[in-house]
């Protein structure tokens, strides 16, 4: 099996070799763009979201370069098999963890979040690690491009791995779409068209892995191995953009709900129900001026008078409700 046990430079045609080199160039270029976007987007470079995105993006050039060196016999197949596995684990598991790190924006149930994290860890331990071990053994055992029993087992396990990982990532993306479809009507009242646009973006990011599975079942190992970093780099660019939009939209909507306007039935003299009271405590001078004016709220709404005790917002003129 070309590529599964060793180099392919002596068995592949020039057009296929040029295609593989083109995939490598696209993946590395996308990865460089993502590095720039990550360091421009993240103000605080810490947390699971930042490190998982950085890990997933670092896995892309590692996997691409090691595949290129292995396939064209620039480096020995065995050690390159280890590097390929490391790059694959970083790229795939990193993207899964990146999706998980922002799942709390649409799911408030900690039990569901723990279940999703357990699924990601189980996929890594029971699917990715065994298949990676088979690939390393296959690389050291025989590099004669002859199908051996180990190669046959690896070939079946590799197809199963791609199907399961595609299902896991589709489930993660599907959770975003499902949960967002349930809450978008409320947020759409505030944000309008942005909510509908984000819903379509979430749908588009969930359908990028099916073509990799199709290429794998066509027994084109060398093509799908170099094509995977391209697809995952595009997927990572889309997900980084969509998740950033989701975080901004949810946080701004939450700010509007807690915002600077008093509910019409909120007593204006209740300190506990006024979250902005500590930011606009009146000075002594302003308090004296308010007392002289009969306890009317300042035109900018920056202070409250104690003479309004017991009056509701419905009893106040509209100008006094703006903050």
From TrEMBL:
InterPro entries found in the cross-reference section: DUF7703 (IPR056120)
Pfam families, per the entry: DUF7703 (PF24802)
Ranges of compositional bias, category Polar residues: 270-286
Domain DUF7703: 15-259
Keyword terms: Membrane, Transmembrane, Transmembrane helix
Transmembrane residue ranges: 16-36, 48-72, 78-101, 113-140, 160-178
Region annotation Disordered: where it falls in the sequence: 270-290
Entries under PANTHER family matching the protein: INTEGRAL MEMBRANE PROTEIN (PTHR37013:SF4), INTEGRAL MEMBRANE PROTEIN (AFU_ORTHOLOGUE AFUA_1G05950)-RELATED (PTHR37013)
Protein name: DUF7703 domain-containing protein
Species this chain originates from: Xylaria multiplex
């Amino acid at each position: 099996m070309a590529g599964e046990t060793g180099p392919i430079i002596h068995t592949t045609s020039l057009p296929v070799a040029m295609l593989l080199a083109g995939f490598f160039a696209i993946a590395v270029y996308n990865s460089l763009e993502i590095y720039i976007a990550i360091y421009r987007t993240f103000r605080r470079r810490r947390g699971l979201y930042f490190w998982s995105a950085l890990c997933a993006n670092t896995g892309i050039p590692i996997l691409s370069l090691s595949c290129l060196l292995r396939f064209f016999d620039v480096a020995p197949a065995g050690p390159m098999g280890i590097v390929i596995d490391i790059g694959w684990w970083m790229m795939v598991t990193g993207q899964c963890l990146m999706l998980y790190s922002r799942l709390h924006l649409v799911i408030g149930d900690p039990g569901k979040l723990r279940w999703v994290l357990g699924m990601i860890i189980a996929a890594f331990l029971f699917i990715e690690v065994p298949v990676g071990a088979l690939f390393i053994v296959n690389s050291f055992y025989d590099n004669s491009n002859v199908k051996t029993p180990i190669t046959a087992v690896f070939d079946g396990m590799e197809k199963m791995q791609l199907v399961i990982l595609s299902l896991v990532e589709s489930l993660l993306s599907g959770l975003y779409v499902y949960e967002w479809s349930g809450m978008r009507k409320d947020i759409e009242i505030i944000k309008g068209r942005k909510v509908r646009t984000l819903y379509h973006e979430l749908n588009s990011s969930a359908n990028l892995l099916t073509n990799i599975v199709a290429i794998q079942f066509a027994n084109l190992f060398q093509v799908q191995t170099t094509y995977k970093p391209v697809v995952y780099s595009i997927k990572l660019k889309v997900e980084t953009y969509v998740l950033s939009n989701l975080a901004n939209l949810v946080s701004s909507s939450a700010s509007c709900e807690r915002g600077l306007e008093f509910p019409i039935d909120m007593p204006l003299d209740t300190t506990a129900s006024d979250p902005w009271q500590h930011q606009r405590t009146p000075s002594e001078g302003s308090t004296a001026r308010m007392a002289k004016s009969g306890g009317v709220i300042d035109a900018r709404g920056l202070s409250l008078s104690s003479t309004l005790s017991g009056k509701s917002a419905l009893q106040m003129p509209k100008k006094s409700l703006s903050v």
